[in-house]
Amino acid sequence: MAKLQIRFTRLSNTHHRFEAIRPDGGVETRELETRSFLLHDLVHYAIESEAGLRNSFYGQLARGASYDDVAGDAEGGKTELVVGALQTASKGEPDPVAFVVQLQAYWGNIGGQPPSWLTPTLIAAALERLRQVQGRWRATKFGEAMELDFEV
Q1: Does the pLDDT value for residue 70 go beyond 90?
Q2: How far apart are CA 34 and CA 15, in angstroms?
Q3: Which run of H or E residues covers position 3?
Q4: Which end of the chain has a smaller Cβ tally under 10 Å, C or N?
């Protein structure tokens, strides 16, 4: 199976470099403001890895989309909604069951269908993965990189 290598390099207290090294050797690089982007990108990684998603943010990057132009297709749009909600919830101690119930109610209110992978078990696993990568990031020194692999 091919993989996308994701590299987060700590540049300063406020900025980091994001690099996505595609299976074909192409590289997508951005210098980003850490407070705005890091947690969001790590939540994407946790959700997409645990759910086995291949057509959301990281899967699209692996296939050549740019960071700024990742499409919000059916899978990507649903993933983005879950990521945004989990990003906010992860600042506390979210209960996976309550989290899923709230999101399912939201989808019901807008006449939509939640993704089949949205389960309390998946959310608990994604929160654990997020906790682990956040710990790795905190241990990353200035000028060093944290590397993650994403199966595509």
Answers
A1: no
A2: 5
A3: strand 3-10
A4: N
